[in-house]
């Protein structure tokens, strides 16, 4: 588990921001765990079909890669949900679109979450997370 420093609401009336060490999983470590320990497998034919289709559809991101490199596509996305009648949580997940587990709920992996009551706006926290995960 890692931490990323993000600005959050102090909860005071003046709405002053404070910095919070928010726990998050490192995406690289999570993917390594999924492939090495949890048994996530993406078949070679599925990878070939995916990249062939993406190139045939002239997807710019697919055309930028060497056709002999069969990289496994990873999806990163955010969502929020209610955890009580008055509280929501915002989350970031990753998934592997080419991996098909027996249950769909097993195909998404939580990277980060934050209670909405602490949020100054999702974009502020997301920028900190992206910079933590992919430093310049």
Chart the SSEs and their pairings:
Blueprint: E1 2-9, E2 17-24, H1 27-36, H2 44-56, H3 60-63, E3 75-84, E4 87-95, E5 108-115, H4 122-133
Molecular structure report:
The protein is α+β, with helices and mostly antiparallel strands and 136 residues long. It contains four helices and five strands, in the order ββαααβββα. It has helices spanning 27-36, 44-56, 60-63, 122-133; strands spanning 2-9, 17-24, 75-84, 87-95, 108-115. The strands form two sheets. Strands 3-4-5 form a three-stranded antiparallel sheet, with no helix packed on it. Strands 1-2 form a two-stranded antiparallel ribbon. Strand 3 (75-84) and strand 4 form a beta hairpin. It is elongated, with a radius of gyration of 18 Å. The mean pLDDT is 84.
């Amino acid at each position: 588990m890692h931490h990323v420093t993000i600005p959050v609401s102090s909860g005071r009336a003046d709405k002053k921001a404070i910095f919070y060490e928010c726990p998050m999983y490192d995406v690289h470590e999570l993917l390594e765990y999924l492939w090495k320990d949890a048994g996530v497998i993406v078949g070679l034919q599925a990878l070939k079909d995916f990249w062939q289709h993406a190139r045939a559809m002239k997807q710019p991101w697919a055309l930028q890669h060497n056709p002999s490199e069969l990289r496994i596509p990873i999806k990163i996305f955010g969502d929020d949900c209610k955890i009580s009648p008055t509280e929501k949580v915002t989350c970031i997940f990753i998934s592997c679109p080419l991996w098909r587990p027996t249950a769909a709920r097993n195909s998404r992996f939580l990277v980060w979450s934050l209670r909405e009551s602490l949020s100054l706006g999702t974009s502020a926290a997301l920028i900190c997370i992206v910079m933590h995960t992919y430093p310049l």
